[in-house]
């Protein structure tokens, strides 16, 4: 078993197994066993969940920081995930969402959040229309094959 050491600044909060803790001065925490935690810097506020992928992030975040309501949050995830997957044509986004669904199915919420954080900038580009489109594939020019007498 490995030890996980985290350093927190004064006033910073951490969510551990559903509990919110705030430290009054710089401190170090060592987790000696398996623990579910989320640093304050990775917590998304409800008001910031204003795009589809951010909303999915918020739902997964609830599974992690509020284990008592994780079943309800998972049901919400399972309702929204298929529609979200169908809404994107980007291979990178669709692949990332499939990874997220796999991680959630294995109760790996922290890893699912990490994967979603990677997808948020891609979603921003898509919504802003700044993603360079993939050029259409043109049909190859037809090559003349020997023509016989008619």
UniProtKB/TrEMBL annotation:
UniProt keyword terms in alphabetical order: Bacterial flagellum biogenesis, Cell projection, Cilium, Flagellum, Repressor, RNA-binding
InterPro entries reported in the protein's UniProt record: Flagellum_FlbT
Biological process annotations from GO: bacterial-type flagellum organization; mRNA catabolic process; negative regulation of bacterial-type flagellum assembly
Pfam family, one: FlbT
Keyword RNA-binding: yes
Keyword Zinc: no
GO molecular function: mRNA 5'-UTR binding
Protein's job: Has a post-transcriptional repressor function in flagellum biogenesis. Associates with the 5'-UTR of fljK mRNA and promotes its degradation.
Family, as annotated: Belongs to the FlbT family.
Protein's recorded name: Probable flagellum biosynthesis repressor protein FlbT
Organism, scientific name: Aureimonas pseudogalii
